[in-house]
Fold:
Amino acid sequence: MHRSLRTKHFRWNVCISGVYSTAAHTLRVKQQIKENRKRALLGGGQHRIDAQHKKGKLTARERVHLLCDPGSFVEYDMFVEHTCSDFGMEKQKFPGDSVITGHGLINGRIAYMFSQDFTVFGGSLSSIHAKKICKIMDQAMLVGAPVIGLNDSGGARIQEGVESLAGYADIFLRNVLASGVIPQISLIMGPCAGGAVYSPAMTDFTFMVEDTSYLFITGPDVVKSVTNENVTQEELGGAKTHTTMSGVAHKAFHNDVDALLQLRNFLGFLPLSNNDPAPIRICEDPWDQDVPALDTLIPQETTEAYDMLDVVYNIVDERDFFEIMPNYAKNIIVGFGRMNGRTVGIVGNQPKSAAGCLDINSSVKGARFVRFCDAFNIPLITLVDVPGFLPGTSQEHNGIIRHGAKLLYAFAEATVPKITVITRKEDHESYDVMSSKHLRGDINYAWPTAEVAVMGAKGATSILFKGKPDVSKYEAEYVEKFGNPFPAAVRGFVDDIIEPRTTRWRICQDLDLLKTKTLKNPAKKHGNIPL
Amino acid sequence: MCINVMLQNGYHGIYRAISTSSSYFAVFRTDPFDPNESRFDKILIANRGEIACRIIKTAKEMGIKTVAVYSMADSSADQLQPENHILNMERILEAVSQTGAQAVHPGYGFLSENAAFVGRLEEAGISFIGPSVEAITGMGDKLESKRLAQAAGVNTIPGFDGIVKDADQCVKIAKDIGYPVMIKASAGGGGKGMRIAKNDDDARDGFRLASQEAASSFGDDRIILEKFIDKPRHIEIQLTLCKGGDKHGNAIYLNERECSIQRRNQKVIEEAPSVFLDEKTRKAMGEQAVSLCKRLGYYSAGTVEFLVDSQRNFYFLEMNTRLQVEHPVTEFITGVDLVHQMIRVAKGHPLRLKQQDIPIKGWAIESRVYSEDPYKNFGLPSIGKLYKYIEPLHIPNVRCDSGIDEGSEISIYYDPMICKLVCYGNTRKEAIDTSIKALDFYVIRGVTHNIPLLRDILTEKNFVDGNISTNYLSEVYPDGFKGRQLTKTDKNYILAVAACVYARRDIRSYIFLNERVSTAKHKEPSHWKIVLQLFGEEQLCEINKLNGKFQVQVGTETITVEDNINLAKPIIEATINGDPCVMQLVSTDSFGKFQISYQGTNFHILVLSELASRFLKMMPEKPKLDVSKVVLSPMPGMVKSVTCKPGDTVAEGQEVCVVEAMKMQNSLAALATGKVKAVHVKAGDTVGEDDVLVEFE
Structure:
């Protein structure tokens, strides 16, 4: 279709050179702009759009419109065309090429975005495609606004060869430079394979759409030829794989509409840049009242599990909690909530899963979240009930020391307001790790059920009284001594022992107090987190 | 004054103080407390939950110290059998001697009708706040009680005079009496271990299930049979008698309660008085009940239950030798505090009241608020944690007897009753209206509850007219309860409120209190075009915000809703077209799934912008679980038995396993004939709602 259009343009050009008329020229240019715009809006054409819909996916443009406030999207580079003249590509050009870029408003706030258009060359990344993305990223950095990438791309534009690879690298560089300056969010809404995966991997959050999105370095065909493994796209790099096993993605949504609406909601938790404070929304949920439900959450039996999410829901505004990685490393909970309207990052051990112990995956999950919050001025609320680090050869051999250190490093490094509540156990080295007073925790509370000890009573007494006859007697003594919040409280390691029902209003009060907190780490190029 | 006692091996002190929520027990008192009367110093309450709170309340008012015991089963999932706790007589006796209590109030259930327990207390010189061992023994056994009733000249139902040995005999006797027959636990009460049989198969199944339930609930699997009376009303007479009442004539009846609204023979709504009784019948029933008690030498509070047929013939059903769940309705209309009377009588005081002192003043209705799903068989247990719980006590003439607080967990180990909502009025209509209002303002979050059903019954024509029987539910809702049936206006109101909630959420998401201001296009919206979906039907809707009001265009109708909706409040007191209208905002999410409750029922509404709605239609449907190939647990509970194994071929309707929760046994059957592919549970497993138990090929 577009080839015939181009032929028509050519005829007009002949005409222009023959009889020169400025008025006609202006009209024709106008007409041409109109035509190109119309073509740009159609992407790869109606039948490709239909094919996209058939797969259960929205088009790049539909996605942008749903993401932005009505009528607020401002598009850049609608007229750019790829520059490749090999393999007959010069005859196939689409205005705007395979990505839509620009900025729009999300609940009235500015955000830059790109949306890869699978209907044009399978959304493949040409050099101009990359340049378009880089342009909006540069501008987002200038003004200080988030960048949202809606990824739906078959990969590099093979016809362009190294030009395309260079394009990826240009984006990667910008991802890195923007890291910690503006929030970067990737929503994978189709394939994202090969080198392309590293851009989402470097953004702050990677979300996926169930059943229609894939992320992998090498696809099932290559896997088959190299390792002889038979694996489907879904198993190799589907939403389930990445949100439960690999930890590459932070959350999955049911479909495009769900994903985009939730993304709008998610943006409301984040500041626009590292120069902005954590946003405060109008709070309709009274912040200054007791929450009696908190009093009964901790079971009487100290070994019995409970759901830390119940604590979270009962302290945040309106039980509204946006959990990050809800299905990966479930022994730690991370996510965003609001307290008296202000966004907070919540980190909590989850006794319901693996007794809430820290292991490699939960340490890494927690550490990355803490660093995000610290980078973007979001106060940290830490809910502690941790029996220790998970023992075992698998953990030790895979480097729990190195990975556990990440969480320790992240908490210690963080200069945002840090409020910690020990709900129950805090044993072992994990005591230090979980935003303890020693790591510059601003306000640390213990519930009456809190216990702070070097290790469980059984373990401790078996070491202390090795070989002695009635170890169980000493065990009781150990429990008596450390099975309560006093040892920590008398040393000032916790600031107060509080009734659980008061937790919400106390934290809200503290957050207000700490809003003027200023703390700076020593000047340095950057620290050296144990990666 | 409430002392919580820590007991070894399975008991511990109450973590939070017990509190009764209501400020009063009735509107007036016929027999006020006499501070000069001698009384116990301290009593122990061998029960839990609402009834423990209820007893403590009166005891406190009388100036008596109380000891409460609690079991670990309240919080611990490891302690599987409640019998190990509250029912454990030894532990209670230990607690009595530890705390120096002079008397024990057993509440209802548990040890309340356990003659051995009363005997042990007597031996220890502790008063039992209830009747004598003989009375409990005599009346506790259905068969024995029937004989005694007959001997006392009380009308009884035709039936088999003995214990049914096995299923075959059950079928034979049933045939002799003539179907339908009632199969019930000899030791039972409260509807547990009761089955109705309409044919031989029913009789066989009924015998087995009833005896199993009887064994697990009462530790006694003896079963009796009797004629089942069609269209019966359940009307009971409350009595109170002092010790030696047979000699001194000091025995009075406190009129009747009608408890005809029942599901599976368990009471749902009770009222006093009954619309059905005339003065003559009331007097005859009361006098028969009194004569039975006198013959027994009965003292303390007790209830004689009757079945009343359409001709006002009444038959003795059983006598409950304890305080009953539904006692508050009697307290409201007579002004007599039954717990007060029980404690006085146990102390040896005579009644100060005479029969002629007992009024019927006003009308009281008790709605039992249960943690259960009313859409499943009028109520299957549901469990969870009450993260939000607000009783409607701001409404006058409302009493809530409950033993739970915000944060309480409803477990599978006890009865699922959350609260007894008792509402009072000068007339039945007033009592009904107050009940409706109270239910509309009752906030329960975290468990599925039966308010939808209660609220619907209270407005149902037959109920309002007093045209009820124990078959009420199955007759009024022959296909099961399906939720509130909405008129067009109701539907539009719900949609309009959902639309306003959407608009309010949207406006709020635009307002940040601490952000750089953008001059270009930073305004929150004031006009919306959305699509609402309720019951799968779509409705395009336009909203305009004007002068603090939302103008909502639903179809051809324009509805005005005041902008006073607080998104954090559970109750929406909306003003729709100028009229007040109460709804509850149960939940919202950022996708647009809202739950709004109106007239008791929860409605699920999907609210999307026009664009999102159009796009959503293009999204593929997610595949659903084929339920004909699986048997799901209808409720959380414990697997009692599994009667199939992989490879078995089972017929449609054949039982594959039995799940027990809150002492109710539910036989689960295959939905289609097929071969068993996998059995995912074994006896003793704890299962959640909708867990897959058995899979078919």
Q: What stands out?
A: Residues 22-42 of chain A form the longest helix (21 residues). The longest strand of chain A covers residues 418-427.
